[in-house]
Design brief:
It comes from Bradyrhizobium shewense. This protein has a domain of 31 residues. The protein has 3 helices and no strands.
């Protein structure tokens, strides 16, 4: 019984330490990603323009997947 108890406590301690290490690593990795916000470089006309173009590869995709034309 004492061996099983030691194994359980060891496993729990290990998982606690791994969990704390993961949180600490996540905090250090997230720090450089935080920066100042940048405004959009597009004006209102560029935001409203049509971007979808039915090119040859799009037509082939529709044909292969049997979408109605």
């Amino acid at each position: 019984m004492s061996e099983e108890t030691k194994a359980r406590v060891g496993r729990r301690d290990f998982l606690r330490k791994v969990g704390i290490g993961t949180v600490g690593a996540g905090a250090t990795l997230a720090t450089p990603l935080v920066g100042s916000a940048q405004a959009d470089s597009e004006n209102d006309d560029e935001k409203r323009k049509a971007r979808y173009k039915e090119s040859d590869h799009v037509k082939a995709y529709y044909r292969v997947n049997r979408y109605p034309a």
